[in-house]
Amino acid sequence: MKKQIATIILTFFIATAAFAGQPDNRSPEAAMALLQQSMEDVIEVLEDPDLTVEEQQQRIEAIVDPVFNYELIARLSLGPRNWPRLDSQQRRIFVERFVNRLKDSYFQNIALIEGDTETRISYGELREDNNRVHIPVRAGMQDASVDMVYKFHLSEDRGWQVYDVEVNGVSIVASFRSQFSQILADHSVEELLERLKTLEAPPVE
Amino acid sequence: MIKDTNVASDLVFAGVKRHYACFFRFLVVSFLFLWMFIGISCATGQGTTISSIAHNDYQIDQADNPANGNELDNNDGFHDSDDFNDEFTDDFDDFDDFDDFDEFDRYDIDVFDPLSRYNRAMTTFNDRVYLWVLDPTARAYATVAPVQARRSINRFFRNLGYPSRLVNNLLQFKGEGALKETARFTVNSTIGILGFFDPAGSWLGIEPHKEDFGLTLGKYGAGSGFHIVIPLLGPSNLRDGVGLIVDSFLDPVFYLEGFYIATAAKAADELNYASLHIGEYERMRKEAIDLYVFLRNAYEQNREMQIRE
Question: Which residues face A161 on adjacent strands?
Answer without folding.
Answer: A153
